[in-house]
Design the sequence.
């Protein structure tokens, strides 16, 4: 890996002002990627908590699972809908400022939940404030860093940064589940706030907005001057959406990624712990299984980034969605009071596929939408979170109505089959199709 990260000092890079700039032995881009990785790990704390709150809030405050699921769905929807605007704001104000403010908003919203007494406060604090803050640090953040700092090895970097969320889940889920079971849900909320605040110094002191800030070329590319701040961030985000929405690939990517969100964040991350608890499994054991998913998610996502650099992104997406759908259809018969080998096989299998869809989806956005790909991916991510929001609410409602989650597992499996077909019919860009053979 180090060989891929290193660049020799023999050849200077010349800026447009004819100032020779030597490339460091280990390119600064990898340090920026490392800071981004740590930031996303810290943000995983608030992504890990909602599934652990359903049963404690239902027991203590007597709110229905549908009501709690609605607050989670608002959080997930805003997480997605904020992302494209956050990408445009990063172009206007810089990555550091946007991410630092977002972390502060997350800490505020999480702390305020400690004093809530009504369901609308959960929607306001956790749904709106934490949703807006987390949306500003969504995968569009990773896409922006990757696009600015890397030309070579983008697939690998995308996989690494996507895996950061899983790494954070691995770190925080066992801790938060232990806090919820031993001390209640309020200390867990405080822990999330402190984790968000702890990341702010790393962002402000170590993160840089653009390679030109430190007189470097992006990794694997030529030196370019830092572009002027782009004004009208909201207008640009909406304009890019309207332009992308005129193309078929955008709707296929958005539709398939909505199903991705429905079958991961909306379903498994939100409802796996209460579903396992329905079958007699302790909350800490169920949370531990989610953490194990995080372990294999890291492996699967990094491997997916490596595959994306070498194989067809369309075919990779089709395989990932098909395998995910099959695994979800088997889950209802695997849930039991204790952990057994078939359940562990599901956890490993599902973990490898959890967010393996992100690197090929980002690659297809770059392939079809070029310089606007980070904002377009933000909108595609918005569809991911809207899908997650729908299932977060529908899953809790189905549990209230049917007394079981089984129907939701089977429905999500069928949706994954549809997503696999959608991925296969995504075409190539017209400019690429028009090139002569071998160009």
Sequence:
């Amino acid at each position: 890996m180090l060989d891929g990260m290193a660049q020799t000092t023999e050849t200077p890079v010349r800026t447009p002002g004819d100032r020779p700039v030597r490339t460091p032995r280990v390119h600064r881009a990898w340090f920026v990627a490392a800071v981004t990785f740590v930031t996303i790990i810290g943000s995983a704390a608030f992504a890990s908590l909602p599934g652990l709150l359903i049963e404690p809030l239902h027991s203590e405050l007597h709110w229905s699972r549908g009501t709690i699921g609605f607050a989670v769905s608002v959080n997930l929807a805003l997480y997605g809908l904020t992302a494209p605007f956050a990408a445009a704001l990063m172009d206007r104000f810089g990555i550091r400022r946007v991410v630092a403010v977002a972390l502060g908003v997350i800490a505020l919203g999480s702390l305020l939940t400690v004093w809530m007494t009504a369901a609308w406060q959960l929607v306001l604090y956790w749904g709106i404030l934490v949703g807006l803050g987390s949306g500003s640090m969504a995968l569009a953040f990773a896409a922006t860093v990757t696009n600015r700092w890397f030309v070579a090895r983008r697939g690998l970097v995308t996989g690494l940064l996507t895996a950061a969320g899983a790494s954070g889940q691995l770190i925080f889920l066992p801790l938060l589940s232990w806090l919820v079971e031993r001390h209640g849900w309020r200390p867990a909320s405080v822990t999330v706030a402190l984790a968000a605040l702890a990341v702010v110094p790393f962002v402000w002191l170590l993160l840089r907005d653009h390679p030109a800030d430190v007189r470097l070329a992006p990794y694997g590319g030529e030196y370019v001057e830092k572009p002027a701040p782009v004004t009208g961030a909201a207008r640009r985000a909406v304009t890019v959406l309207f332009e992308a929405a005129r193309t078929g690939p955008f709707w296929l990517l958005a539709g398939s990624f909505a199903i991705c969100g429905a079958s991961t964040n909306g379903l498994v991350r939100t409802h796996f712990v209460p579903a396992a608890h329905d079958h007699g499994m302790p909350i800490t054991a169920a949370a531990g299984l989610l953490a194990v998913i995080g372990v294999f998610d890291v492996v699967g996502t990094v491997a997916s980034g490596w595959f994306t650099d070498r194989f067809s992104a369309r075919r990779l997406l089709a395989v990932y969605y098909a395998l995910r759908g099959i695994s979800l259809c088997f889950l209802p018969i695997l849930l039991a009071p204790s952990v057994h080998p078939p359940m562990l096989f599901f956890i490993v299998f599902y973990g490898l596929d959890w967010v393996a869809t992100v690197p090929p989806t980002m690659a297809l956005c770059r392939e079809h939408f070029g310089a606007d790909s980070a904002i377009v991916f933000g909108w595609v991510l918005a569809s991911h979170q809207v899908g997650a929001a729908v299932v977060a609410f529908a899953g809790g409602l189905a549990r209230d109505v049917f007394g079981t989650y089984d129907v939701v597992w089977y429905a999500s499996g069928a949706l994954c089959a549809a997503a696999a077909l959608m991925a296969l019919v995504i075409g190539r860009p017209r400019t690429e199709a028009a090139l002569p053979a071998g160009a």
